[in-house]
């Protein structure tokens, strides 16, 4: 499912459909058009997720209780069946974050190819053990967690091996630049080299996901909306279609531009060809008669780079010309 040689881009539609089936379909179509590999929703049953008295997170506004809000954002099991079929026709991977047995069952019913575990459930070992039973690839965000909690979660999920994605995430909406800690991508890569490391973004722009790719992230998840002005707590920190498309294009560029082989510093084939035009060769600085002993003042260094490089001048000095050499002749070893 995940590959270390290409970035897997996820449009996190989440709850940005606001419980409306037609809006959910539009999000799927738009995600595909914007260059995402997958579109992800949040499959939950409110009763399985929170108690009625649970308070809202700081970024969640409105007069309703959090419980009432979540009930309004739910999609039914039948909705997921239809959306999965619609996504298949659109040609994009469809999956969701799961929060309990009921949502796992919904995803299993539609044949979801992978599962997502949100940062809030990093230490929910009950849920982790249930998801492992599906034998499907898993992505887990590690916001809110320290390294000990991350290691404990990975230990439970470790049999996924190359089918486990670990996403650095800062669970703030939105985080400030100084709170992003993108260096954790490298820390996670060193700590879990057998797994795929990525980044889940909650910033208000697209710079951080692109920077994460330059730092080695191979999965990028970004909240996605049709319109930032739509109601809902995640809309403001989501990318709209124009932003997401630009982000995907930049990620594809950086994915190709960043060479994962740190030992490979040699120029590529096309650049090697440019050597001939841009580098310089030893030339006769004056007319040189046959038999003349070569001294430095008889030599010049000029383009093109098709002859003896100046770095090898010592191999020529002191030798004698085998033939008459006209000024500006590009010199070869056979001339001496």
Please describe the topology of this protein.
Blueprint: E1 8-14, H1 21-33, E2 38-43, H2 46-49, H3 66-73, H4 77-90, E3 93-98, H5 101-109, E4 115-117, H6 125-132, E5 138-141, H7 147-157, E6 164-169, H8 184-191, E7 196-201, H9 207-214, E8 219-223, H10 241-257, H11 269-278, E9 281-284, E10 299-302
Parallel strand pairs: 1-2, 1-8, 2-3, 4-5, 5-6, 6-7, 7-8
Antiparallel strand pairs: 9-10
Keywords:
336 residues; alpha/beta; Type Iii Antifreeze Protein Isoform Hplc 12; eight-stranded parallel sheet; two-stranded antiparallel sheet; 11 helices
Distance between the termini: 61 Å
Which CATH class of the largest domain is shown?
Alpha Beta
For the record, the count of structural domains works out to 2
Helix-strand category: alpha/beta
- What is the assigned CATH homologous superfamily of the largest domain? Aldolase class I
- Compute the average pLDDT: 92
Question: How many alpha or pi helices?
Answer: 11
Radius of gyration: 29 Å
User: Would you list the SSEs in sequence order as H and E?
Assistant: EHEHHHEHEHEHEHEHEHHEE
- Global outline: elongated
Which regions contain 5 or more consecutive residues with pLDDT less than 50? none
> Which assembly state applies to the chains in this document?
single chain
Strand content: 15-25%
